[in-house]
User: Fold this.
Amino acid sequence: MTTPYQLYYWPGLQGRGEFVRLALEEAGVPYEDVARRKKGMPVLQASLDFAHSEHPSFAPPVLRAGELLIGQTANILLFLGTRHGLAPRAEAGRLWANQLQLTIADIVNEVHDTHHPLSTNLYYEDQKKAAKVRSKDFIAERIPKFLGYFEQVLANNPGRGAFAVGARLSYVDLSLFQLMAGLRYAFPNAMARQEHAWPRLAALHDAVAARPNIAAYLRSKRRIPFNEDGIFRHYPKLDK
Assistant:
């Protein structure tokens, strides 16, 4: 592509947009993080407005690729993966990758709900007691269930290197890297206790982080640090 992709996502946050950024960075294709530029927010808002788009998205992330305006993280990654060699060529493989990405979306939603268990319209400070209960269950039950599943996915792909889908890196591997990084940030104590049970996921995280394009991205200012405004938030009282 000669024209950069345009990514519409909230400025100052990794959030769900980070899964898309990782794919764009690994593919080495030009893109513009629109809302981080001056006067970029009105452009982001227009992508969500029926008055400006025939197919507006409900919420970011949104990717503009020429005339296409694509919403939903998994949908964007399916598009980018197919176009840039980050998804299997066969239909069955592409569907499997999309299925895994949707499962990653499920746990990401549950991570968000650890600090906003009652309402997204309330601040964390307004629901601390419920957040503590939700986080305790998430750490004890949901992290092992999800990460155990993904560990088995890796184990069931023998002879294919260390990848989740097929014989080469896919956007699913990039997203699993982000999931592991986010969980380590949000729940460092819990992950330190449990992570030994998922050695393949830990190895995948390290392998993705060492890839040249990803390593350069992680060192750059384009990589927004984890913070307490995003999905993965570290509140010590929730990390028990």
